[in-house]
Amino acid sequence: MGFETGTMMLAGALTLGHINDSGFWVTAKLPGLSLTGGLKTYTLAQSITGVFVLILALIGATLLPMGA
Hints:
Largest sheet: none
Oligomer: single chain
């Protein structure tokens, strides 16, 4: 398994947040958001991060291939 594969797996894991994630509760409760508002905010942020990491991994795999 190469670097690109691991990075793409990370992107997939980041894309979907879960309500049991401690980061969700920090994101929802610290600014005083409701459960619904916190879930919307956290899901949007996680989705953007996951897509961004996936794009970076694809660019890195194209420019710097790790082998055949």
